[in-house]
Specification:
globular; 285 residues; Rossmann fold
Length: 285
């Protein structure tokens, strides 16, 4: 029988193994490698000589450390990049710009950082590679209200849905439809570039549509669904009028829907989970 000291050492070793599995730099090193001019991400391989420019965007509490790993790996091959991180979570980077912003409550700094990402993505073309780095807190750190809406409109809508007991899936559906970048819209902005999204998941089950509100994942919900959610919980008159009008216009076909599973935006989009709760548990075994 092991002594108490041995059991304590085993417990500490298990704990640290789980932490290493969740560490952003460790996760990047396990899943992303540079081999003879090719970027290898799990089983996929990308010939870097086939791309004119390589860009980095991202958001989350670990986005800066993930960007550090990308800079160490690709160095001067990178063209430019922008990531949003929580205040106090920045890291020294040479090529990728870091925007500190509010979390868990989004703020205007987050909006400015997200707008900088959108401006960068609008420069991309078919011969470019975009690496998207997502981690915990990504939803709050990617705030960019749809045209005609304010950050306060989004916050008041989320608060109303939380107060009425809406599920997180229902709240996310509405969030995606009042955003310029969530619900697959980042992938649409990036198309027809090659997009590789490297994801540290903090969501149980690793649903791509739920992690950071799914900026690079297809969205099955619709504007009509969102109106149904507001009516179901009796909050249609408690959300800002601008939000209700936006959703109504979308349901009538006057606003562009979030991209669905077979949308061309996803033809060259690759989502890769490089760390998750499950992987941490496996690392601790």
């Amino acid at each position: 029988m092991k002594s108490l000291a041995d059991l304590r050492r085993d417990a500490i070793a298990i704990f640290h193994a789980g932490l290493r599995a969740a560490d952003p730099a460790e996760a990047m090193a396990r899943h992303v490698r540079l081999e003879r001019g090719h970027l290898r991400v799990n089983g996929a391989k990308y010939d870097l000589s086939a791309f004119e420019d390589i860009y980095v965007v991202g958001a989350g509490k670990a986005a800066a450390r993930m960007a550090q790993a990308v800079e160490r790996l690709l160095g001067e091959r990178l063209t430019a990049g922008v990531v949003n991180v929580k205040y106090g979570h920045a890291a020294p980077l040479r090529i990728v710009s870091v925007h500190e912003a509010g979390h868990p409550v989004p703020d205007d700094a987050g909006v400015r950082g997200t707008e900088a990402m959108i401006d960068l993505l609008r420069r991309t073309g078919e011969k470019d590679l975009v690496l998207c780095l997502l981690s915990g807190g990504g939803s709050a750190l990617l705030p960019c209200p749809a045209e005609g809406l304010s950050l306060q409109d989004k916050q008041e809508t989320t608060q109303a849905l939380l107060a009425c007991g809406a599920t997180i899936r229902e709240i996310n559906a509405v969030r995606k439809h009042i955003s310029r970048i969530k619900g697959g819209r980042l992938a649409r902005l990036t198309s027809p570039s090659t997009l590789v999204s490297l994801i540290l998941s903090d969501v149980i089950g690793d649903d791509l549509g739920s992690i950071a509100s799914g900026p690079t994942a297809a969205d099955a919900s619709t504007f009509a669904d969102c109106l149904g959610i507001l009516k179901r919980y009796g909050v249609a008159d408690r959300v800002p009028p601008a939000v209700r009008a936006h959703l109504e216009q979308g349901a009538r076909g006057n606003k562009e829907e979030t991209p669905k599973a077979h949308d061309p935006a996803f033809a060259r989009t690759h989502n890769v989970i490089i760390g998750s709760n499950i992987q941490s548990l496996q690392g601790a075994k």
